[in-house]
Specification:
A 6-stranded antiparallel β-sheet has the order 5-4-3-8-7-6. Strands 1-2 form a two-stranded antiparallel ribbon. It is of the alpha+beta class. The longest helix has 20 residues. A hairpin with a 5-residue loop joins strand 1 and strand 2. The protein is built from 7 helices and 8 strands; from the N terminus they run H-H-H-E-E-H-H-E-E-E-H-E-E-E-H. 42% of the residues lie in helices and 21% in strands. The chain starts with 6 loop residues before the first helix and ends with a helix. Helix 2 crosses helix 3 and helix 5 runs antiparallel to helix 7. It holds the Pfam family HTH_IclR. It comes from Streptomyces stramineus. InterPro entries: ArsR-like_HTH, GAF-like_dom_sf, HTH_MetabolicPath_Reg, Tscrpt_reg_IclR_C, Tscrpt_reg_IclR_N, WH-like_DNA-bd_sf, WH_DNA-bd_sf.
Length: 213
């Protein structure tokens, strides 16, 4: 802590991070131990966060992340989209295919940014807001591979015809971005993905990850 920072705000943010890292919630005693503060301080922090719907407590008294966090999270997409656009534009123009940034939204993959190439005669019409199961399509498969820590994976996923007949996809996961699960990829009308595309989407995914850190 420095003179310019707020100890109370810091503790409140630490509470939210601790709750976000658990599926079963935490008691006041558990939070008190993890934060290294007394229970009275924890009660005050939780009461304040509850007023803003950022924390909720169940019947047993365990604190969990509240629905207010979801409302804040919705505002993250525009910021992420803006940070990703330069790398997506470069990827789309380089490969001559539609480039996209896809994030996890619950159990689905959600395309939050899409850039189409300017010089091709035709390309796949892929729109921001498009959703699909995580286990279908290159974007979702790349995310799941990263989630599993799949060391045998080449660093990107390739698929054909899983989301659209005649279309192939390649995607690489965003790595090292705290709080964000996603991937960067391309989709093209072809029977297979050219060899250079996989490494190129990995490069673009790293550029986006660097922009988000």
């Amino acid at each position: 802590m420095t003179a310019e920072t707020s100890q109370t705000l810091d503790r409140g943010l630490r509470v939210l991070k601790l709750l976000a890292d658990t599926d079963h919630g935490l008691t006041v005693t558990e939070l008190s131990t993890k934060l290294g503060v007394n229970r009275t301080v924890v009660y005050r922090l939780l009461a304040t966060l509850e007023q803003h719907a950022l924390v909720r407590r169940d019947i047993g008294g365990r604190a969990r992340v509240g629905l207010g966090v979801l409302r804040l999270g919705r505002q993250v997409h525009p910021l992420v989209r803006e940070a990703a656009l330069p790398a997506l534009r470069s990827l789309a123009e380089d490969i001559g295919a539609t480039a996209h940034l896809t994030l996890v939204d619950g159990t689905e993959a959600l395309a939050v940014a899409v850039v189409e190439p300017t010089w091709t005669d035709y390309h796949v019409a892929y729109r921001a807001g498009f959703r699909h199961p995580l286990d279908r399509g290159a974007a979702g498969r790349a995310i799941l591979a990263a989630r599993r820590g799949d060391t045998d994976h080449p660093g990107y996923a390739l698929t054909h015809g899983e989301l659209e007949a005649g279309a192939s996809g390649a995607a690489a996961p965003l790595l090292g971005v705290l709080g964000i699960e996603g991937s960067v990829g391309v989709v093209m009308l072809s029977d297979s993905v050219p060899e250079r595309v996989g490494p190129r989407v990995m490069e673009a995914a790293k550029e986006v990850a660097d922009a988000l850190r």
